[in-house]
């Protein structure tokens, strides 16, 4: 019996460890195609409300064995360890339907087209509005960088998925990991088995919070430029936008918000078409002579971050691929989504820059005539406000799970009561996060600088550096020489661009912060 108990405890402990590492990706695309309604790439879908396994199955305070034949393996109460193929014992508390969902059976899968829509939402979102500003400081080199970033992000997305698989004893390729965090932890094992996951978590939190800040900044900017005659400053508009967003602290799930996000995404495509149509109507005045093979040494590194940030989608690709009906179609899906993104982004950025040339602003809709600017910007503000809850809720989930709900490894007491309700101090922390995004938007109200900083720091790290490094670490014995060359080249180039863009963006932000503090 002692041997049986030790075996069971070992199985459950393994399940707990795997659950802790995989929980990060659980909020990504866990709801299948519903992620397609999410905005930006933050195409994150909320995890099931503390799923049944986490709530009940892993409670090990009661372990009983019922009498039976000697040597027979009797199920233990509270032990719901189940195998991936669904052959494990049925949990005593769960119905067959619930068990089917827990074991992955019956979970709705998405087609390659639906997966492509998720990726398109991630890389064709609202932040495309900053690309013409990147062409302003990079000329034709900026256009080349849009193409180069698409090729590299497509490649690193594929090699990141390759890191999820290994060859078993029978020579078959099987999926042994589930998330970006799992890959990072595998690379740092056995000396630092959780270090890689913590690095990825920190990078993700930074990117999510910065995305929230960008939504507040762009809301204040658009409203201020839409109604310049009103006695309301950009900071005041940002405060008003934050007041509207404060109820996000009370969110329990994103089902209602995600429905609105689909309409906002469609509206955004319509707005892009309207901007391009206006630019085409002024084709006779296009300033082709302004597009040159030169770069602004001080500001072009910021443009690199802007372009990279507009392609970020790697963080949720493992979950997306795992939810596809036919994972073999993943490579093809990545190809056509990034080719389409490259063409549309390049055309949008070039056409917009040719129309306004040196007068191109950080957010291109601010260049539109006042007659249509207000209407377009109001739609964009509504889209930004409805998109804010998605990265905010994802950031809250990561923080709560890593700091307050990670069992004995949690740094602080659980922010949820025994009845599952959020404690008052937990709600206060959520409100503080909303206020923090407001303060950053007020003191650094520069869309391009913040976008460049985020793209250089977390965008380049998650899209360029880490995938190539993980690919070399996990699969280097099976890689062909040209794969090794590509990985090393991407790591080196990505590192240089990341450091350069981060330094210049940080210098610009410090200068802007000082200027605002003096005012």
Automatic annotation (TrEMBL):
It is found in: Cytoplasmic vesicle membrane; Presynapse. It comes from Oxyruncus cristatus (sharpbill). The chain crosses the membrane at residues 141-165, 205-224, 260-280, 300-320, 332-354, 374-399, 427-444, 450-472, 484-503. GO terms for molecular function: gamma-aminobutyric acid:proton antiporter activity; glycine transmembrane transporter activity; L-amino acid transmembrane transporter activity. It catalyses: 4-aminobutanoate(out) + n H(+)(in) = 4-aminobutanoate(in) + n H(+)(out); beta-alanine(out) + n H(+)(in) = beta-alanine(in) + n H(+)(out); glycine(out) + n H(+)(in) = glycine(in) + n H(+)(out). InterPro entries: AA_transpt_TM. This is Vesicular inhibitory amino acid transporter. PANTHER family: AMINO ACID TRANSPORTER, VESICULAR INHIBITORY AMINO ACID TRANSPORTER. Antiporter that exchanges vesicular protons for cytosolic 4-aminobutanoate or to a lesser extend glycine, thus allowing their secretion from nerve terminals. The transport is equally dependent on the chemical and electrical components of the proton gradient. May also transport beta-alanine. Acidification of GABAergic synaptic vesicles is a prerequisite for 4-aminobutanoate uptake. The gene is Slc32a1_0. GO terms for biological process: gamma-aminobutyric acid import; neurotransmitter transport. It comes from the Eukaryota. Residues 109-505 form the Amino acid transporter transmembrane domain. It is a multi-pass membrane protein. Its main location: membrane. Keywords: Cell projection, Cytoplasmic vesicle, Membrane, Neurotransmitter transport, Synapse, Transmembrane, Transmembrane helix, Transport.
